[in-house]
Every structure is written in C-alpha cells, then in structure tokens.
UniProtKB/TrEMBL annotation:
TM region positions: none
HD Cas3-type domain: residues covered: 35-231
Keywords, in A-Z order: Antiviral defense, ATP-binding, Helicase, Hydrolase, Metal-binding, Nuclease, Nucleotide-binding
Organism lineage: Bacteria, Bacillati, Actinomycetota, Actinomycetes, Kitasatosporales
PANTHER family: CRISPR-ASSOCIATED ENDONUCLEASE_HELICASE CAS3, DEAD-BOX ATP-DEPENDENT RNA HELICASE 47, MITOCHONDRIAL
Family, per entry: In the central section; belongs to the CRISPR-associated helicase Cas3 family. In the N-terminal section; belongs to the CRISPR-associated nuclease Cas3-HD family.
Membrane recorded as keyword: no
Protein name: CRISPR-associated helicase Cas3
This protein's encoding gene: cas3
Length: 971
C-alpha cells in the first residue's frame, strides 16, 4: 500500500457508505484477459488517464492551446484538462460493460451490483463511450446549471472511440444495460464524484467551464483525449491494479511519468522565443541570403495581428519552401504554436522536403531531429528516416525480438483498435513476434508510428492526404485534427489538388480557420479563382460563417503574398501592395511544337538523339507510363550513348527511390562537376513538381497550362550551371498533340482521359500564340517570358473568356468538362466532415451521422483521391523449391521471412498495378502463405512471376524489367 491517501481513503472522507465503497472498488476498467494478465480497476484507469493528461499539459500541449483552455476553465486549465481526459471512461460503470468478462464480473455482482439477462444482439448492446455520455449529460445539465456547457462537453466523452453520435443515440435500446436500482445509481454517481475530487475539484459543479470552445477546438481537444486514453491503456507501461487501496493520483502520476519517459514522448518547441532580428529565421537559421519574395513572406508573418492564412505565389525555384519555414518560425513564436506540418502533393515530393525540414529542425535543437516524422507508406525506403527512426536503440530492439518496424502496430489497422474495440466485435491487431522494445529517452517516439498517430508528432512532413483526411467524416478524425491544432500548417504545390481533392482542402481550411491555426499555402501557378476560394474558406471558419466572401485585391505583381484573417469579427484580406521582384530576371523561353500522337515513342526519341548529339541534358515528360517506356525503348534500341534514367509510377519502390536520388544528385542544386555531359531523363508527371533538377531542354506532352508551366520550371532552374552554346536559350518542345481535322488539335487518348479536352484545347491555343498554329511549316519562334508571363497565362487558361479559335468548338468541350467536374465536386460532399447546412453547429454532437466509417487503408486513400482504384502488389519470383524477392533474395518455400533485412528487400519490390488490372488482381492475388504472421506482409498481395519472368493477369501478361519497370502486354 502507498503512504499517500488512496482512493478508498478519499471515498471514506467523502462520506460514502462501506457498502458503496466496496461496490465502486469492484468496478473494473481493464480485464486481466486483455491487460497482460492483470485486472485494472476503473478508477485506476481514470486516474492514469488524468495523470497522462497532466504530463501532456506540461510537455506536449502548445502554449496557444493551454491559453485557450485556461480561458474556458476560468484559470484552471491544467485541472480541467486532466478531468475532461480522465472522465472519458465513466460509462464503464454499467452492466453493459461490467458483464463483458465473466471473471471480472463475478466480484462486481458479489458486491451487490447485479443485472439480469442482457441482450446479446450487437445492435442492442451499449458501448461504454455512449453510456458515459448518457450518464454524464443529465448531471452536467443539472449541476452546472448550463445546458450550453453540457452540450459541448458530453460529446467529448461519447466520441472517445472515434465517432460522435447524435443525442438521440444516447438512449439505450434495452434498459437493463444501463443498470437498474439505487445501487447502480449510487455507484455511477460515485465514480464521477470520486474521480472529480481525486483530480482536485471539490465537486462536479466546480468543473463547470466559464466559456465554450468552438467546434474546431472541441475536435482537437477530443483527439487529445483519445491520445491520453491510448497512452494510459498501454498495459506494458501501466500494468494493472486490482486493489482499490493501492489506487491514488500520486501513484498514477508516477506511472504516467515513467510511461512518458519510456515511450520517448515529447512535444515540439515548448514555447519558441520570438527572434530578435526580423530576418534571422532566413539568414541565420536557414543560411540563405534573403530574396525579395522571401522577405515579403516573412514580413507578412511579422505583421499579421492574429493567426491567419498566407498564400505565397512565386516562380519555380524561387525558394518558397524555405521562406515558408522561416515564416512558420515567426508565426509559431508569436502565437504560441509548438510544431509544423508540411503537406506535399506526393510521396516522391515528401522525401526531399523531409530532409529539408530535418535540417531546419536541427538548427533549433539537435535533439528535435528525432521528433520529425515522415508520413507516407514508403518511408522505410528513405535512408535518412531509417537512420533517425530505426538507428537509435536498434540493438535493444533486436534483442527484444521486435520486428523491422520496432513497435507493436499494424500498418493496415485504420481503426487503431484497442482491446475495448475487440469487446464490441472489432478485432485488434495482435503482434506475431516479440514485445515492444522500450524506448530510449532521447530516441524517436515510435509510439507516433501507430495508426493515425503520425500527425501528433511535433514536426511532420507527408502527403497532403493526411491534411485532407482530417477533413473527412471518418473514424478517429479527431486524432488527425488534434495533430494539426497547435501547429503551423504549410501546404506546398497547392495547385496540384484537383477539384475533388480541393473540396477536402477547403473543408480543412474552414476547420483550421476556426481553430486559429496559421496556414501557409505555396504555389507557382495558382489560378486566381482558387486563391479566392482558399481565402473565403479560411475566413468562413475564422468567422464561423459558412458563406463568407472577402474579395482579394489583385496583387501588384508576381511574386506576391496574400494574407487573410479575422479581426474583431470582420474579415481582412490583402495582397502584396508593391511589386516584388523575382530572384531571377524573366527569361525568354522559346516554345515550339513537336507534333506526335503515336504510341511508339520513335519521333520523340529521334528528336532527343538529334538535340544531344553534341551533349546536353534533356528532360522528357510524358503523360502515360507506356509512352515513357516506349521512348526509353526507342532510344535504347538505337544505341543511345549517354546516361538515361526512366522515372514513372510502375517502378518498384526500391528502383524508384534510387533513380530519383540519382537524378537529384546529378542534376540537382550544387551538382557542379557531377553533372554529366550527356543525359536524358524520361519521366511521367512525377517530374512535374518538387523535382529539383536542371535540364537544358524540355520535351513535354501537352498538359493544362499550369502543369505545363510547372514542367518548364525544371528548365534552366539553377544559376551557374555549365551549358553548351546550343542550350544557352531555354527551349520547350510541346508534343503529345497533332493537327486534326480543320486545324483542331488531336490529343493523346491518355491525356484526354486525365485532363479532359477543354483544358487541353485552351493550353494548345495559348501555346499556339507563341509557337504558331499546329501543322504550320514555319515556326514563329515565339517565346513565353518566364516567370513574368506565368500569372497571366494561368489566369487566361482558367478564365471565362474564350481563347480558342471558333472552329475548335471550345464551348461544347467546356460544358462536358464542367459537368464532369461538378459531379466530382458533389461526390466529395458525401464524406466531408460537415455538411454545408450544419457548418453553424456549436458542438460535435451528431458529427458522424449515419455511422460514417471507412473499413480499410485502401478505402481511406480513395476517400480523398478520386480516381480509379489501383492495387499495390509485392513482386516475387518463383524459384526452384520456393520463392525469391524481386532482387533475388531467398524467402523460403512458402515465402516465410525471418530476417527483417530481407523483409526490407522484399518490400522494395512493391509496385502499383495499372487501374485496369484492379479487378482481376483483387480476385486472384493473395499474400504468400508464409506472410500470414508478418505485420507488413500479411495483407500484401503477391504478384508471382513464373520462372520465365512473367505472370498472367486476366487477358494481359505482366513482367518486370530492371530498366523499364512493370511491363504490361496484351496476350
């Protein structure tokens, strides 16, 4: 027994009868069967969670959030946060829960808390999260004498398992599950009252908030409650206490402190000092000589009176991301934020940004390096991530028997199920190998690698999907949103979101605006209408008004920064007032046609050979993998002399990562003498953005103008690059289009399928203004002035005025395009976090109407990316007596893998199949038998290549070529 007063001592001091004390002391919270063999009493778990919350208050919550909780609690923020986190499981004090385990139920019944036959049908059972809200809500209404306060607090209890029911869903369908009689009523009241007193309040009435959090703040707080609960539910860290005389807040505090240390958890800056020099975040922290556009963004961060939205538009290669990081430091210091999330359009663009953010964070404190997360499914192939997250304590992990990912998590478990979910028929993941290794104190917090926890890391870089999913009506959305509250959010290449994804981005901006989260959006090619929609969405949230419209003044020039925020209940929006010169003077970029809509790649390959006969670097960007492979084949068959690199989405993970790194090494900034004399990079849209290479010549398939300009951004990108005399002028050859009937352009079918005909027609018209009409014998030798012409070209491409010749029938194409876009826009509404008519709601009650939940990781990806579903497979080769990985590593008779190094090599052969093969792949491909017990492999379908190197999938034959990647051929 502890020397400090126990929970039993407290109950006696409160005047509870001995019978009531015995009954409350028997209520269990964690069963021995699911808690490492040790029963944990209910009051013990509530106090553990409160103690974890207290540690989170001191070492995790941002200054801004602590201030806000102090405001609504009347200056008792710490205690109030402890209470609201710990009270979450009070609903376990009812027969519906206490009856779930016969061994645990026996002493409860023996103490006098009885029940009759309870319903076994799942729809009639009562979840304890809902039960807690139902038990607590009437007491809060009565004892707080505040329907408003009760209205926003009870959903926090009801939602701690990932979804928010309506008030109508609180009523049990079978009365006995709630508990009948004076004994149950007394016990339920006592659990709440004893816990409330133990935390530090005199009685429940004292907990009453003096204000209310807005709905976005409630959502973030709900996620923190889930976080505290999940940490306190770790049986290895907290064990169990079966004797109430051993339960006390002091003991819970000791356990929470030890658990926090062992898990290696921490927040971010912990209160960032305001820089003394206004330019030091750029000049000293990032070691750059500030350019005019960077200074403009930084100055706007200094001058913004409250958190708001910043939209930075600047040419490719201008240094927007460094400026955004510097601005994030200023915003975080001024407004009390504790970290940063940088959202990138793709996995490929996330990797180099992770390296950049890693070095930036180290400049504050080298120890913070271990708090930078990379959030995408291929992070294990990033060597820097593996060094940081797997290098620390690797020997201890191996001794403990842990796997390649040294944490007990299931990467395919989108529910983040706990043992409580299992009690309601949702199976949790049980690790097949050894236990979880203890964390070293200064190492990375691998707890954050668990499902849905990545954004909770102080500093994170990942795909924009993580931001978009925080705006979806999916289970545990509050955990994702909690990872954004208290941070500065940076979204790079924001123009890359199509109209479907944009609905989730706008929804995220509404919620972030309401939560007072500063957001920085970056783009080189942003249509004015999109800029306006982003401003309106953020201000709608900040003002809690669904239809806010605040016209953005036309920027004085390009680059420019637009800032918007709500001040004293009014919207404010403004753009750069003076012309900001770009880093480099605009350069005339010659635009020419290379008409070609063939599939064999011969014409493009021939032009490449011609252009680099005397040396040079050419980047070829095409819109279809098959076309990229065809160009590569044509060059290879002709015996091309020089380096060639092929990049596309059908490369296996290992090859794609290696080739991307090699291209960046040879053509990236600072390549210097490493830059080859002759080199060709053939790529798909992977090279369109955040691909920091410098080419002498660009050959590109026609694409919408903003994307075409992004591709041009890879041309003559770096200063000081040595070029041959023939490449002193940047040139672009536009292909993938040819003159059709009556001069109307004819496009590649793949291009039309991806972008739609209207956007391609307008792009062709704008290109023709410089290059002359398609099919014309004489070239106009016209130019685009880059970057000066970028804003006007993008504005015209997406404006209302027609730009195409009359005989191109632009109007009909526009109507077809808009009908498709409108359908996609409406489709997104089905899973947006809030329906438009409910944006004015004040609480989270009923947020998950219709029980909206997604079931698998693939489903989650499909939620925010509209398109044909595709399947990722792991390629293996059939070998005599068993199987080998794609790279030849032996993996056993049934595919069994004992060496985790081999697992990494095996997963290096993961590749995404074309969407046309999804149905046949889902019907016929399954994991190998030996993968059943491995967390990374047990759900991974195997594409088995026979000894001839091919596999038959329906009516196509697939193979994998070391250079071409996955090859798909009709049988």
């Amino acid at each position: 027994m502890e020397s400090t007063p126990s929970i039993v001592d407290l109950m006696r001091a409160m005047g509870l009868s001995e019978e009531a004390i015995v009954r409350v002391s028997r209520l269990w919270g964690k069963s021995a069967a699911r808690n490492g063999g040790r029963t944990h009493l209910l009051l013990g778990h509530l106090l553990d969670t409160a103690a974890v919350a207290e540690v989170m208050w001191d070492r995790y919550l941002s200054v801004a959030l602590r201030r806000r909780l102090e405001e609504v609690s009347g200056g008792r923020g710490r205690l109030w946060f402890m209470w609201v986190c710990g009270i979450h499981d009070c609903g376990k004090a009812c027969p519906a829960f206490q009856s779930l385990d016969d061994a645990e139920a026996a002493p409860v019944r023996a103490a006098g808390l009885s029940w009759g036959r309870l319903p076994t049908a799942r729809q009639q059972r009562w979840r304890h999260d809902v039960a807690g809200a139902a038990l607590l809500r009437p007491r809060l209404q009565m004892e707080w004498d505040s329907a408003e306060g009760a209205a926003w607090v009870w959903p926090l209890v009801a939602g701690h398992h990932g979804w928010f029911p309506s008030v109508g869903g609180l009523k049990p369908r079978h009365r006995d599950v709630q508990g009948r009689g004076a004994e149950w009523e007394e016990a339920q009241r006592a659990v709440v009252d004893v816990f409330t007193r133990a935390v530090g309040f005199e009685e429940l009435a004292d907990v009453r908030p003096v204000g209310a959090l807005n709905r976005a703040e409630q959502l973030g707080l709900s996620g923190l409650i889930v976080m505290a609960d999940w940490i306190a539910s770790d049986s290895e860290q907290f064990g169990g206490i079966a004797d109430a005389r051993e339960i006390s807040l002091a003991g819970a505090r000791r356990r929470a402190e030890v658990a926090w240390q062992r898990l290696g958890l921490r927040g971010g800056w912990g209160g960032l000092a305001i820089p003394e020099d206004r330019l030091s975040p750029l000049a000293e922290r990032l070691k750059v000589t500030p350019r005019a556009s960077q200074r403009e963004l930084l100055e706007r961060a200094w001058s913004m009176p409250v958190p708001g939205l910043m939209v930075a538009e600047a040419p490719m290669g201008e240094g927007k991301t460094k400026a955004a990081l510097a601005a994030a430091e200023v915003l975080a210091a001024r407004f009390g934020l504790d970290g940063v999330f940088v959202a990138m359009p793709t996995q490929a663009t996330s990797d180099p940004m992770y390296e950049q953010v890693l070095e930036w964070v180290r400049s504050f404190d080298p120890g913070l390096e271990a708090q930078v997360a990379l959030l995408h499914g291929k992070r294990r192939f990033n060597p820097r991530w593996r060094e940081v997250w797997e290098g620390v304590g690797a020997a201890a992990i191996g001794e403990a028997g842990g796997g390649y990912e040294p944490v007990a998590l299931d990467p395919f478990d989108v529910y983040g199920a706990t043992e409580e979910d299992a009690e309601y028929g949702m199976a949790p993941w049980l690790p097949g190998g050894g236990g979880v290794a203890q964390e070293v104190r200064d190492g990375p917090a691998r707890w954050f690698l668990g499902s849905k926890r990545g954004l909770l890391t102080a500093f994170a870089v990942g795909t924009v999907d993580h931001l978009l999913l925080a705006a979806t009506r999916t289970r545990h959305v509050m955990l994702r949103f909690a990872g954004l509250v208290g941070k500065v959010v940076v979204v790079d290449e924001v123009h890359a979101a199509d109209i479907y994804m944009r609905q989730f981005l706008l929804e995220a901006l509404r919620w972030l605006g309401q939560a007072k989260v500063p957001v920085i959006l970056l783009s080189a090619t942003l249509p004015p209408a999109q800029r306006q929609s982003f401003v309106d969405a953020y201000l709608s949230g900040a003002l809690n008004a669904a239809d806010t419209v605040c016209p953005v003044p036309e920027p004085a020039g390009y680059p420019c920064v637009t800032v918007s925020y709500a001040l004293n209940g009014s919207p404010v929006a403004g753009s750069s007032r003076e012309v900001v010169p770009p880093w480099r003077a605009s350069v005339p970029t010659r635009i020419d046609w290379l008409p070609d809509v063939s599939e064999d790649g011969v014409l493009v390959a021939s032009r490449v050979r011609e252009e680099v006969a005397g040396g040079g670097v050419v980047l070829v960007v095409v819109n279809k993998v098959d076309r990229a492979q065809a160009v590569y084949r044509a060059l290879t068959e002709d015996g091309f002399e020089g380096q060639m690199h092929l990049l596309h989405g059908r490369l296996c993970s290992a090859h794609r990562a290696k080739r991307t790194d090699e291209c960046l090494r040879l053509l990236g900034p600072g390549a210097g003498e490493k830059r080859p004399e002759r080199m060709v990079v053939i790529a798909t849209q992977l090279a369109e953005q955040s691909f920091d290479v410098d080419a002498d010549l660009l050959i590109t398939d026609l694409a919408p103008v903003d994307l075409l300009l992004q591709r041009i951004g890879r041309l003559h990108r770096h200063s000081g690059t040595r070029r041959l005399a023939s490449f002193t002028e940047p040139r672009v050859l536009v292909t993938g289009v040819a003159a059709g009937q009556e001069g109307r352009p004819s496009f590649l079918p793949a291009s039309k399928g991806i972008y739609g005909e209207w956007a391609l027609l307008r792009a062709a018209a704008l290109v023709a203004e410089a290059a002359g009409p398609l099919g014309s014998e004489a070239s106009q030798k016209g130019v685009w002035s880059i970057p000066a012409d970028v804003p006007s070209l993008v504005a015209r491409a997406y404006g209302e005025a027609e730009v195409c010749p009359p005989d191109w029938e632009e109007s009909a194409a526009r109507e077809t395009w808009w009908a498709r876009e409108h359908t996609r826009e409406k489709k997104a509404e089905d899973v947006l976090l809030t329906r438009a008519r409910e944006w004015g709601a004040l609480t989270l009650e009923g947020l998950h109407y219709a029980g909206a939940r997604m079931a698998t990781g693939g489903d989650l990806e499909a939620v925010v990316r509209d398109g044909k579903r595709s399947v990722e497979v792991v390629i293996v080769r059939r070998s005599a007596g068993g199987y080998r990985a794609l790279d030849g590593a032996w993996i056993g008779v049934h595919g069994e893998v004992d060496d985790e190094t081999v697992v990494g090599r095996l997963l290096g052969g993961a590749v995404r199949l074309p969407s046309g093969l999804t149905e046949v792949a889902e019907a016929g491909l399954v994991p190998l038998p030996g993968w059943a017990g491995h967390p990374w492999l047990r759900y991974a379908p195997a594409l088995v290549l026979e000894e001839d190197g091919t596999a038959l999938l329906g009516k196509v034959r697939v193979s994998y070529d070391e250079f071409l990647g996955l090859v798909v051929e009709e049988v």
